[in-house]
Design a protein that fits this description.
Helix content: 25-40%
Shape: globular
Strand content: 15-25%
Largest sheet: 8 strands, mixed
CATH class of the largest domain: Alpha Beta
Structural class: alpha+beta
Number of helices: 8
Oligomer: single chain
Length: 359
Amino acid sequence: MDTSEFTSKSTNKYIDKASFTWQTPSNIALVKYWGKSNPQIPKNASISFTLNNCHTITTIDFEKKEKSTVVDFDLFFEGKQKDEFKPKISEFFTRIQAYCPFIFEYKMTIHSENSFPHSSGIASSASGLSAIARCLMSLESEINSSLSEEYINKKTSFLARLGSGSASRSIEGPLVVWGNHPDIEGSSDLYGVKFPYDVHPIFNNYQDTILLVDKGEKQVSSTVGHNLMHNHPYAENRFQQANENLSKMSEILQEGTIKDFINLVESEALTLHAMMLTSNPYFILMKPNTLEVINKIWSYRAENNSNICFTLDAGANVHVLYPEDEKDAVNSFINNELAKYCQKNQYICDNAGFGATRI
């Protein structure tokens, strides 16, 4: 893999101070990736919706200092200094130093906040690392004004991936593919790309209500879960299945065959958790109320000939997906039947959105 295009170009431009703020979305994968190799290369391609309302807002203040061999930064999350988050960010900076050598020339103060609970199965690493990558690329584009928007987006996704694989899918939207795939033009293991084909109108502004079944931290981190795929007895079959499912999903999204969409999305969600159940050591991230919600969704769909369905990320929370023309009916169902399975009746109404926004 040739990563040379992402090496920073030399320039004599000098910037003493700068500050950038970005809002970047979380995303929910429709076809999941589970398993990777270094450096953050997926074992199979994936596709996701970016989300409008689940996002991270990050500001980085840059102040020029004497160049050193250490990246100097302070990190504040939701107003509080969070030194426990620093090792993950330090590892990210180590991975990107060849592509962003200017990070050694600045003291960085990072302020970040989420619109959703941290570490609860909503992809906070995706939105968080993509926001940091956006801020870094804003500085680089100030230093080097010749960079094109296309290059900036591509490199931002490339950098974000080195912090969190799914973060590569949180730069643009509303549908993003990450991972090299023969049926997706321009796709790459190194960065995410916008789904390159026309999407059927039924998938426009697709709705996603996230039921917060469990807002606590996951018992097993996604990083540990991915690593358990290395010796997983079903790993190779799963990687092949996921790539085949992405081919099917590409056709579904273009043709608007929503019943096939429902079947594939739910199958992918349950397969992801099946990999967790059959790894060694094995683990369960679903909670009893996760299963209650799934069964309620199945019953509602059958009784009302609805196009509602669910997906899951690596956690207990349930993403309820449905087309916009069912919004009122499904929202009533959620309020009356599903909210009681959430902690404190909490859920987040969201929809498939576009990418990052400079603030």
